[in-house]
Amino acid sequence: MTDPPTSLHTGGCRCGAVRFAASADPIYTAICHCEDCRRSSGAPFLAFVGFSRADVGFEGGQGRRYGEEPVSRTFCETCGAPIAYQDDRLPGQIFFNLGAMDRPGRYEPKEQAYVSERLPFTCIAVDLPEHEKTSVPRNRATKLADHRPF
Description:
Blueprint: E1 9-12, E2 19-22, E3 28-32, H1 35-41, E4 46-52, E5 56-59, E6 64-66, E7 71-75, E8 82-87, E9 93-97, E10 111-113
Parallel strand pairs: 3-10
Antiparallel strand pairs: 1-2, 2-5, 3-4, 4-9, 6-7, 7-8, 8-9
């Protein structure tokens, strides 16, 4: 594995073909209600955890990439499990789907994004700050700067 020396946080796809590890604590945890996150995950919302890309290593590859600039997502080509999200407007960061983490209970979301797109029947009881749109400020000069994910 090309992971950093001490792997504090680990995860991977369903079949184990893609594994990853981070040597430092997360920089961000959140829930996103946007349509893009729902469609990419197949769930009514997506919870994720973000790390500095420099602290993350992979084994078995990083998964297959798809998406339009500035956003890309990855999934395992073997089992199809969604793995990660990256945004060119957030250089040096990578966000893993919480379900891909080995111990997802360790990463309690701190915010919710795109609550304006939350499905009416989504009834999770969470007392977190809510944002009508993105929860992470981005450079709006980038192409597709209004892209939806978190």
